[in-house]
């Protein structure tokens, strides 16, 4: 991007060079127009004349990937950019009509899903949207944004290498980095197949209100209300104006600094060798624990000690949750197929839940602030996070450790008022039933979706098969309890015993800010602002499976859980060096 506040001559020269790059290909006529531009530059022409020349040049090039129908300074920040005519609906999933691309490939066109990665424009192949292992929402939430930090955090080196094949252009980043667009999906816009068999825009939800321009908060959350069926469409696609981030108090410069800091921190974690899974010393003791819990539960069952058996089954499930979590993050063998197969065995067959559902929803929560607004029904509907049910009811309050540094005022406002209520524990103790409902709903919904990832829909069928097996074995266990009161007791005790993980996860997120600061906020700042570690006695740390170090987990989701402790020390030290907040102070057990 060119900074319009700089010396006009420099800007014009730079812009001219950029235009020459665009028109490098073949056109002879453009030479004449370029001549005009040259003249405008030499004469230090007013910006209007320059813009006119530029516009003509771009329009003249029928094959220009820019398709600019007008050329304007669209940013109040003074950035000079090429944009589509704002009066015309932006018929693109790609809001990058303004991108000056050096692409030599012909497929940079409208209706693409594009994001920025290290200054490169990456086009997500359409087939990836339906088969992306991290779910389609994670990608759609980053359209039009610089997703470098997120993409580095979420992908293996192998995948990052492969992504290079999807690079279709380059953008020049200013001092403050890329000025992001609001992804269309954040305004409720999605693409779907039209009646004529062509893809078209569809407005699934309408913005209710935006908290822009608040003097007290930098939040720029857009609340969405699901569109009523049959509601009249006034637009055929998102307008450019809707894709501009609402002004807020975040400084792009500070966010850029955070982003640079994250890159440095990530390098430290990689250099410390923490991405290597410790199979023996890490998972070894866990497997012993899983086996013991399962065995004790089985022995108790055969002895007729049903409550004890249910209790140990619940504890077994609680522990397995952490293993399923690692697998869902491709964090065990780091091979997607292998990790997915094992996770289906663990989550679906033993636990009765769909790992596919978990992955799709879980990954979004790593990418955005969680919405707690009951008004935001669209978001809840889409994300169907396990806590969407529980949070509007109540959220417990928790104390933070006295050592917690006070948050920097500009980037860490407190979350919504939190009320303490014992009811929240009761609701959370039954959360597992909500997870079943969400899981099966997801599998039903995706039954007919094309999923081609790694050679087919085998994972969907494997999940369905394993869930069938779960119902068979757990149904037999319940049946063996004899009477209805026994069955009910077994069901409740086993499910309640597996619930501390839900309290822990809700705490780690909802006792922090849930405000959405929009696409300007960096990945690093958002994770530090929205998560907190649970502190507990070292003797019971195993109950939390290492995920009590939630801040570090959010910063490096693919890091093997057993290395989180070491990584968290690095992160804390780094945060201290930089004067950033690392929230490590939630007490859990003292409250229950
Ligand atoms: C061409 C673009 C992309 C490709 C080819 C791609 C591919 C993949 C692959 C293969 C994985 C499995 C993990 C691995 O093997 O690395 C994955 C996971 C994931 N991707 Fe992407 N991805 C793309 C873009 C994105 C974008 C833009 C985002 C948004 C930030 C994203 C978010 C995620 C997430 C959240 C996961 C799950 C990571 C985890 O479980 O810890 N991906 N992606």
Automatic annotation (TrEMBL):
Keywords: Heme, Iron, Lipid metabolism, Membrane, Metal-binding, Oxidoreductase, Sphingolipid metabolism, Transmembrane, Transmembrane helix
Annotated localization: Membrane
Gene3D superfamilies: Cytochrome b5-like heme/steroid binding domain
One of the record's GO cellular component terms: membrane
A single BP term in Gene Ontology: sphingolipid metabolic process
UniProt topology in membrane: Multi-pass membrane protein
InterPro entries for this protein: Cyt_B5-like_heme/steroid-bd, Cyt_B5-like_heme/steroid_sf, FA_desaturase_dom, Fatty_acid_desaturase
Presence of the UniProt keyword Signal in the record: no
Sections of the chain in a coiled coil: none
Main location: membrane
Xref: SMART domains: Cyt-b5
Pfam name, any one: Cyt-b5
Pathway: Sphingolipid metabolism; Lipid metabolism; sphingolipid metabolism
Domain Cytochrome b5 heme-binding, chain residue ranges per copy: 99-172
EC number: 1.14.19.18
Membrane spanning stretches: 292-317, 341-359, 458-475
GO molecular function terms listed in the Swiss-Prot or TrEMBL record: metal ion binding; oxidoreductase activity, acting on paired donors, with oxidation of a pair of donors resulting in the reduction of molecular oxygen to two molecules of water
PANTHER family per UniProt: DELTA 8-(E)-SPHINGOLIPID DESATURASE (PTHR19353:SF30), FATTY ACID DESATURASE 2 (PTHR19353)
Family from the record: Belongs to the fatty acid desaturase type 1 family.
Protein's name according to its UniProt entry: Delta 8-(E)-sphingolipid desaturase
